[in-house]
Specification:
The chain is about 25% helix and about 35% strand. A 7-stranded mixed β-sheet has the order 1-2-3-4-5-7-6, with helices on both faces. It has 5 helices and 7 strands. The longest helix has 14 residues. It starts with a strand and ends in a 12-residue tail after the last strand. A hairpin with a 2-residue loop joins strand 6 and strand 7. The protein is globular. It has one domain: 3-Layer(aba) Sandwich (Aminopeptidase), CATH 3.40.630.30.
Length: about 180
C-alpha cells in the first residue's frame, strides 16, 4: 500500500486543491455537477472558503503522497436547514489516474465517514453518482452505501444525458423518538 497521508484540507492547500479538482472536472465532466469553465472562472475567495476551518461540518479531505503531492479529494456538504440537518452530501470524489487502484478512494471516503461520525446529529450521507462512474459506484457500495433511486437523464453534459444513481450511507440509526425511518 502507498504511504499516503489523508487529512482535511486547509486554506494553505488551495493551489493544489484548485489544480487537482480542475483535473477531475476536465477528465470526467459527467462525474461532477460543476464544470471546468465554472471552476476556472469562479472567484478565488469563494473557492478558498471551501477550505476554511469555520466549515468543519463540511470538510474537504485530501490524500497526499509526501508533503507536496495532492492525489485525491472528497468533500462533504452538511445540510444547514433544520429539517434536513441530519444529512450531508458526499461530493467531488476524485483520484489522480496514476494513483487509482491503490485504495486511495477508499481511504478518502473512510476518512470522511470517520469525520462525519464525530458530528453531532449527523445521520446519513447522500451521494449522487452518474451510472457511467462504475468504479465510484462499486467503491461506495463496498463501503455500505445503499442505492435508493435512479434518475434517468439526470445530467446533461456536452449534449449527452447521463443517468444518476442515488445512494445513502447511514452513519447512525435514528432513535425512535426522532421520527422517520433510515
Amino acid at each position: 500500500m502507498l504511504p499516503i497521508e489523508v487529512r482535511q484540507l486547509v486554506t494553505e492547500d488551495f493551489d493544489r486543491y484548485f489544480k487537482l479538482r480542475l483535473a477531475g472536472l476536465v477528465e470526467r465532466p459527467a462525474a461532477f455537477t460543476t464544470d471546468a469553465d465554472s471552476w476556472r472562472n469562479a472567484e478565488r475567495s469563494t473557492l478558498e472558503s471551501q477550505l476554511s476551518p469555520e466549515r468543519s461540518d463540511s470538510p474537504v479531505i485530501g490524500a497526499w503522497v509526501g508533503a507536496r503531492e495532492l492525489i485525491g479529494l472528497v468533500g462533504m456538504n452538511r445540510e444547514q436547514r433544520r429539517s434536513v440537518a441530519h444529512k450531508a452530501g458526499l461530493w467531488g470524489l476524485y483520484v489522480s489516474p496514476s494513483y487509482r487502484r491503490h485504495g486511495v478512494g477508499r481511504r478518502l471516503v473512510e476518512a470522511l465517514i470517520a469525520q462525519a461520525e464525530r458530528q453531532p446529529g449527523l445521520r446519513q450521507f447522500r451521494a449522487v453518482v452518474p451510472t457511467s462512474c462504475v468504479e465510484a459506484l462499486a467503491l461506495l457500495g463496498a463501503l455500505g452505501f445503499e442505492s435508493y433511486g435512479l434518475e434517468r437523464a439526470g445530467r446533461l453534459v456536452g449534449g449527452t444525458f447521463h443517468d444518476q444513481s442515488y445512494l445513502a450511507y447511514f452513519i447512525k440509526e435514528l432513535d425512535p423518538g426522532e421520527g422517520g425511518h433510515p
